[in-house]
């Protein structure tokens, strides 16, 4: 905090201010971050995962800063490879990850970690690498 700000606070308390909280200010309240706009933004993202914040802002006539707050703060989306994805895995995603991890762990214990299984026949990648001259 700058010395100017400290002097200003000292002056305010000498004049009778008793609270550390900001005083209410006049101005327009933020009405864009409501449940209705949140639902509309979520619907636009679900329709097109590649939609940009600026496009959402123009379609819904909401300031871009408020769209950012809705998308990142309320809905919990983040951009991954130019697509909006939820930050939290669904139960189905978690179940799939556990199943795949168990299959890979089982293959590792059987010594099949370097084996590709196309259909029913096995192909050992170490012998393939030796034939192709790879280390």
Describe the fold and architecture.
- By secondary structure, the protein is mostly helical.
- The protein contains six helices and four strands.
- The longest helix has 20 residues, at 91-110.
- The protein is elongated and about 80 Å long.
- Residues 128-135 have low confidence and may be disordered.
Helical segment count: 6
CATH topology of the largest domain: Arc Repressor Mutant, subunit A
Count of discrete structural domains: 2
Mean pLDDT: 78
Q: Which strand-content bin applies to the residues?
A: 5-15%
Order of helices and strands: HHHHEEHEEH
Percent helix range: 40-55%
Low-confidence runs of at least 5 consecutive residues: 128-135
The secondary structure category is mainly alpha
Can you lay out the helices and strands and say which pair or pack?
Elements: H1 3-14, H2 35-47, H3 53-60, H4 64-74, E1 77-80, E2 83-86, H5 91-110, E3 115-116, E4 123-124, H6 125-132
Helix pairs in contact: 2-4, 3-4
């Amino acid at each position: 905090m700058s010395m100017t700000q400290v002097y200003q606070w000292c002056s305010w308390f000498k004049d009778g201010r008793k609270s550390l909280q900001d005083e209410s200010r006049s101005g327009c309240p933020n009405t864009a971050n409501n449940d209705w706009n949140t639902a509309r933004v979520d619907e636009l993202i679900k329709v097109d995962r590649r939609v940009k914040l600026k496009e959402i802002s123009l379609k819904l006539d909401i300031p871009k800063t408020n769209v950012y707050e809705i998308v990142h703060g309320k809905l919990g989306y983040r951009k991954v490879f130019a697509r909006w994805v939820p930050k939290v895995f669904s139960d189905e995603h978690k179940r799939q990850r556990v199943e795949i991890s168990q299959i890979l762990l089982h293959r590792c214990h059987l010594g099949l970690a370097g084996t590709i299984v196309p259909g029913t026949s096995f192909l050992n990648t170490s012998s393939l690498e030796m034939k192709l001259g790879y280390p």
